[in-house]
Automatic annotation (TrEMBL):
Keywords recorded for this protein, A-Z: Hydrolase, Magnesium, Manganese, Metal-binding
EC category: hydrolase
Nudix hydrolase domain span: 84-232
Domain of life: Bacteria
Stretches with biased composition (Basic and acidic residues): 71-82, 269-295
Keyword Magnesium: yes
Any one GO molecular-function label of the UniProt entry: 8-oxo-7,8-dihydrodeoxyguanosine triphosphate pyrophosphatase activity
Protein's name in the database: NUDIX hydrolase
InterPro entries named in the record: CoAse, NUDIX_hydrolase-like_dom_sf, NUDIX_hydrolase_dom, NUDIX_hydrolase_NudL_CS
Biological classification of the source: Bacteria, Bacillati, Actinomycetota, Actinomycetes, Mycobacteriales
SUPFAM superfamilies documented for this protein: Nudix
Protein family per UniProt: Belongs to the Nudix hydrolase family. PCD1 subfamily.
């Protein structure tokens, strides 16, 4: 076990062999001479040539074109699920040879990921980019992404070159707008678990491993929700994180041919994995993702594949037998109406809350309910 600069530990094999640079013990915002980068900004900071295709894809619309089209409420207020809108940011941090010219990533290219503790109330056991909600004291999404990465992994922000802040991606089921911040790890260091109660593992995953066709597949919920996934050791990377990676890899031209017909059951695959996810995507969440009238059925980063069961999506979903899914559930017809505050608690044993199909919990739940949160 290796100690982290602010306490906690993680298996050394998850860290890599990069030299250690002690991270600061107290968070200090970085100062910049120019304007604070905002969503949609490219910073112009020098970067390795192999990252050129990725930065180009993020500026010419190729990356955005591979994602479902969604937008937050115009007033940025409470969404359909009754949860206040909030901005968030994640750090998509790549390392790799500074001298490699590309266009493909070098063999030593890696990306920073975390495995969230299975005991958490929200997103338990998920593999994700470091990141979180924007605090009032943050200057913008860059500071949020770097601060959260420092809090979760001990990352020293001085070793990171911020290359771009991508346009916000809206997550309907939580009413979050998430800005991915692309960074180049100019001075890699050992990173580690800071708080074992929040993070189970910190990993620098080889990009070549994620691109390996043997580690790629699709996950599908019985309601029809479909998304890309990656295998890493005993873990499954899926949801928002996998969608961002898949869209980046494809738009940058880094993809290798992989079997997009390899579609696996979401619940069974997670159950067999080492993720330890206590609260996986419920039928209610999948239904809202699948039926969102502001979104198309694009599967992030996988052109030509649509979310659903095929041409007869509604009939297939109507016959879904997943635990808690109503036999007559129709994702295109379910209105997702939010109950009032008095009906917002989860139903008791055998009960059904207002606004949700029989046997389903609504997403309009108390803030501390583990079903709340964005994917």
């Amino acid at each position: 076990m290796t100690a982290d600069p602010r306490g906690g530990s993680a298996p050394a094999e998850n860290i890599g062999s990069t030299p250690r640079i002690d991270a600061p013990a107290v968070w200090t915002p970085r100062t910049t001479d120019g304007p604070v980068p905002r969503p949609g900004d490219i910073t112009g900071v020098p970067h390795p040539g192999w990252m050129d295709p990725l930065l180009s894809a993020c500026t010419d619309g190729s990356f955005d074109g591979l994602l479902p089209k969604r937008r937050p409420p115009e007033d940025r207020g409470a969404g359909e699920v009754g949860r206040p809108h909030r901005d968030a940011a994640v750090l998509v941090l790549f390392s790799g040879s500074p001298d490699a010219t590309g266009p493909r990533p070098p063999r030593d290219a890696r990306v920073l990921l975390t495995h969230r503790a299975p005991t958490l109330r929200s997103h338990s056991g998920q593999v994700s980019f470091p990141g979180g909600g924007v605090d009032d004291t943050d200057s913008g999404p860059v500071e949020t992404a770097l601060r959260e990465s420092w809090e979760e992994t001990g990352l020293d922000p001085d070793g990171v070159d911020v290359l771009a802040v991508l346009p916000e991606l809206y997550i309907p089921v939580s009413n979050y707008s998430v800005a991915p911040v692309i960074g180049y790890w100019r001075e890699p260091m050992e990173v580690d678990v800071v708080d074992p109660g929040e993070t189970s593992r910190v990993m620098t995953v080889p990009v070549d491993e994620l691109l390996d066709p043997a580690n790629r597949f699709l996950l599908r919920h019985t309601t029809g929700w479909t998304g890309p996934a990656f295998g890493h050791d005993d873990l499954v990377v899926w949801g928002f994180t996998a969608g961002i990676l898949a869209a980046m890899f494809h738009s940058a031209g880094w993809d290798l041919d992989w079997d997009t017909s390899d579609i696996r059951d979401l619940e069974k695959t997670l159950e067999a994995s080492g993720n330890g996810e206590r609260h996986r995507m419920s039928a209610e969440e999948a239904r809202r993702e699948h039926a969102d009238p502001l979104a198309d059925r694009t599967v992030a980063g996988v052109p030509g594949v649509r979310s659903g069961h095929g041409d007869d999506d509604d009939d297939a979903v109507a016959g879904a037998t997943d635990t808690g899914a109503a036999a007559d559930a129709d994702p295109s017809g379910y209105d997702g109406s939010a109950p009032d505050d008095s009906d917002s608690e989860a139903p008791g044993p055998g009960g059904s809350a207002a606004g949700a199909p029989p046997g389903e919990e609504p997403l309009d739940l108390p803030a501390d309910n583990p079903r709340r949160g964005y994917r």
